[in-house]
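User: Some background: our group keeps a shared notebook of sequences we're curious about, and every so often someone picks one and asks for a predicted structure to add to the entry. Today it's my turn. The entry only has the sequence so far, pasted here. Could you supply the structure so I can complete it?
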Amino acid sequence: MNPPLRPLAPDATVDYSDLAGTPQFADTPTAAEGLDAITALYAALMRASFGAMHNMTNHLIELHGDVAHTRTYMHVNAPHFSGLYRCTCVRTDHGWRIKYYEFILHTVERPTT
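Assistant: Of course. Here's the predicted structure to add to the notebook entry:
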């Protein structure tokens, strides 16, 4: 049996602050640092968005030695919204790990770039 996939660095930060102003996530935490806090954050976010499915496209990876920056556009089918995931990943002795993960909400008034 393979060990569980651990894509996050132990001191990773996950930031969904752009969702804080939306009705669906108004009472949900939107940012966390460290694995325990991030686990709790995702538990709260998943409760608020259970059943949502999304597509990811236009992946871009810029590699700079032991650091990689990624961009991925996403579109949620229901409830309808879209945005951009931006990550900073670092190469470790255990493989690549996400150090910083950010979601940027895309709206007509404020399109992502």
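Suggested note for the entry: The helical segments are 35-48. The first strand starts at residue 8 and ends at 15.
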